[in-house]
Amino acid sequence: MTGDESELFWAEMAGVKPLEQGDKVFNPEANSVTQAQLSRRAAAEANEYLDRMPTDPALFKPMAPDDPVSFKRQGVQDQVFKNLRLGKYKHPTILDLRGMRLRDAKEALVNGMLAAFGREERCVLLIHGKGLGNKPYPALIKSAVSSWLPQLDEVMGFHSALKEEGGNGAMYVMLAKSQAQKDAARETHHKGSGFR
């Protein structure tokens, strides 16, 4: 700074005093996420999924009404998937898409899966029906659902349900663990290890 700039700076700073320690305010609530923000984030995520999932039947791998369905994401343990296949996991949510139009079924599927994931549910029973009477595409909803589910990051796998819960007209859908569930599992498996 030149002498003139220095004088000008000090003239502008005249009367300014530093903040005292007690003047600092920290509001932890200001950094926390509000329910409205969470709702907007969930809606944006749902819209992103809906935009990338096709509703043109020509883009689905066609399935026969009695075909079993199965999908397992990499990293899912074989025993965990076997338990899913055998219907050993509780499924508090039952999502029934039978008789819906494709667009409505897609929206119900995305919203239902995201809601179940938000409630920290790990398994959903999804009833898609066999679609025996669908013209000109038999098993249309079943084919669509089998195409859409792998596009949801929250879905870890799915398999046709047991006969008493719908057989090839329904499926068990395994959802990913939430961060809280991962932390709890890590803590559970960590106990007893380490220094004594």
Automatic annotation (TrEMBL):
Domain of life from the UniProt record: Bacteria
Membrane spanning residue stretches: none
GO molecular function: endonuclease activity
PROSITE patterns: SMR
Alphabetical keyword list: Endonuclease, Hydrolase, Nuclease
A Pfam family it matches: Smr
Occurrences of domain Smr (ranges): 95-176
NCBIfam families noted in UniProt: endonuc_SmrA (NF033154)
Name assigned to this protein: DNA endonuclease SmrA
Gene that encodes the chain: smrA
